[in-house]
């Protein structure tokens, strides 16, 4: 995610301090800090509701949509922590007068807190079925509106009409409007591009869908993903999938979808040629750089899909030498290998390398460095596959001279837990990384 977006969010939370500090001269600072925590939670939740709208321009500020999903999760976690501390730390002050709704607002604040906590917990418990989670997730906006009601009418040492009150109110309204847009108005607004399914193929565990535009169609870049919904069926719910075909003049599209859940399994059974579909605008910044620098593409399993589009696009553009590692488990079950081999024959700078773990072969940083002649300083590495594999390769390649900023990947898991085990693993990996780096520095011959 982009630092510009993180800075804006941090400033949005810190700005109220300029109004809270003068109040500390006449009010209990502990209670005032509790109120600041509650205000910050409302600011974060308002921003979180807004970035969930997928409005144009959000990727420019916050980074690609996959990173925005990660940001959305962590903003929710931080907001829940702030709200929980606000409830734990005594926020009551003497000498305050509330309106006739102050008592009700106090009770509604408790309802909002526990409702949001339950829904936030459901969001990070990943074994809850997706359709149940998505249904419950829609209720978050209602509990956020209750939290805003709590803020508007609760006893507090400032008025809603004061600069501080107007500031917090603006984020409350932003969140409520964003929620109403997503839940009520957006479904009624025509969006996306109309398509008709022209071909359906089953390739092992993949379902390949080709679509022809009914109108002008969608314009995209290789490696991007889009939201697909099949009209007039039980498959009308939007789901994001990588576009596995390069852009074509007629703007036809291809999706290669792996059976990973209830929706994708139902899609495999029910999708048919002739069905109509809607595809939203493309998202993601996982795309090839221009220039003559060497490139390493690593696709594991279904992670090969963006590289099919990458490879096709090489027919119409010049780039540096490319090595495509296709990591698989069984040689006989490799979708697109024939297609990729044909493209590699047509494009002189593309080399396809099959890495078959069933034969005891593993892709390692040592092998990548050796294949590239030992110099990784000018290379770009693009990866799409399992997280554990990505972390191991990135760590090893950086130790061998790859610039960390040149290791490109997408967070293609749209729903994840809060990652306490991941945090522990990250701390462990950082320790091992530091040890290995010091060891490499000691063993490197002096010039």
From TrEMBL:
Pfam families named in the record: FAD_binding_8, Ferric_reduct, NAD_binding_1
GO molecular function terms listed in the Swiss-Prot or TrEMBL record: 2 iron, 2 sulfur cluster binding; dioxygenase activity; flavin adenine dinucleotide binding; metal ion binding
Signal peptide: none
Subcellular location: Membrane
Cofactor or coenzyme needed: FAD
Stretches that traverse the bilayer: 36-53, 74-91, 111-132, 139-158, 164-182
InterPro entries named among the record's database cross-references: FAD-bd_8, FAD-bd_FR_type, Fe3_Rdtase_TM_dom, FNR_nucleotide-bd, MRET, OxRdtase_FAD/NAD-bd, Riboflavin_synthase-like_b-brl
GO cellular component: membrane
Keywords (A to Z) from UniProt: 2Fe-2S, Dioxygenase, FAD, Flavoprotein, Iron, Iron-sulfur, Membrane, Metal-binding, Oxidoreductase, Transmembrane, Transmembrane helix
Domain (FAD-binding FR-type) ranges: 190-289
UniProt membrane topology term: Multi-pass membrane protein
The keyword Nucleotide-binding appears for this protein: no
PANTHER family, per the entry: 1,2-PHENYLACETYL-COA EPOXIDASE, SUBUNIT E, NADH OXIDOREDUCTASE HCR
Name of the protein in question: 2-halobenzoate 1,2-dioxygenase electron transfer component
UniProt organism field: Roseibium album
Gene: cbdC
């Amino acid at each position: 995610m982009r630092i510009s977006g993180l800075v804006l969010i941090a400033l949005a939370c810190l700005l109220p301090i300029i109004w809270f500090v003068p109040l500390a001269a006449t009010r209990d600072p502990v209670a005032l800090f509790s109120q600041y925590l509650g205000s910050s939670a409302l600011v974060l939740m308002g921003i979180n509701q807004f970035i969930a709208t997928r409005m144009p321009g959000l990727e420019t500020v916050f980074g690609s949509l996959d990173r925005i999903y990660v940001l959305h999760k962590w903003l929710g976690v931080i907001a829940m922590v702030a709200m929980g501390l606000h409830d734990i730390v005594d926020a009551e002050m003497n000498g305050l007068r509330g309106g006739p709704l102050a008592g009700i607002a106090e009770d509604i604040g408790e309802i909002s807190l526990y409702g949001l906590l339950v829904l936030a917990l459901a969001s990070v418990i990943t074994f809850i079925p997706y359709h149940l989670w998505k249904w419950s997730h829609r209720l978050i906006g209602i509990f956020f509106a209750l939290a805003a009601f709590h803020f508007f009418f609760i006893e507090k040492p400032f008025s809603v009409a004061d600069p501080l009150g107007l500031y917090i109110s603006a984020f409350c309204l932003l969140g409520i409007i964003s929620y109403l847009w997503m839940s009520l108005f957006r479904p009624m607004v025509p969006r996306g591009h109309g398509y008709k399914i022209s071909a359906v193929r089953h390739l092992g565990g993949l379902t390949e869908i080709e679509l022809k535009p009914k109108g002008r169609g969608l314009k995209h870049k290789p490696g991007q993903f889009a939201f697909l919904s099949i009209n007039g069926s039980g498959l009308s719910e939007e789901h994001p999938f990588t576009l596995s075909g390069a852009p074509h003049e007629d703007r036809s599209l291809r999706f290669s979808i792996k059976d990973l859940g209830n929706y994708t399994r139902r899609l495999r059974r029910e999708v048919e040629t002739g069905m109509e579909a809607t595809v939203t605008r493309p998202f993601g910044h996982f795309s090839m750089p221009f220039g003559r620098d060497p490139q390493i593409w690593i696709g594991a399993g279904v992670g090969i899909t963006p590289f099919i589009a990458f490879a096709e696009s090489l027919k119409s553009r010049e780039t540096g030498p490319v090595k495509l590692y296709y990591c698989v488990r069984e040689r006989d079950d490799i979708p697109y290998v024939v297609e990729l081999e044909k493209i590699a024959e047509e494009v002189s700078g593309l080399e396809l390398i099959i890495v078959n773990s069933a034969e005891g072969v593993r892709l390692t940083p040592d092998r990548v460095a050796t294949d590239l002649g030992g110099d990784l300083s000018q290379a770009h590495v693009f990866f799409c596959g399992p997280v554990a594999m990505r972390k191991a390769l990135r760590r090893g390649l950086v130790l061998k001279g790859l610039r960390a900023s040149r290791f490109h990947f997408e967070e293609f898991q749209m729903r994840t837990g809060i990652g306490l085990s991941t945090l522990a693993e990250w701390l462990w990996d950082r320790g091992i990384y530091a040890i290995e780096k010091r060891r490499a520095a000691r063993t490197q011959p002096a010039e």
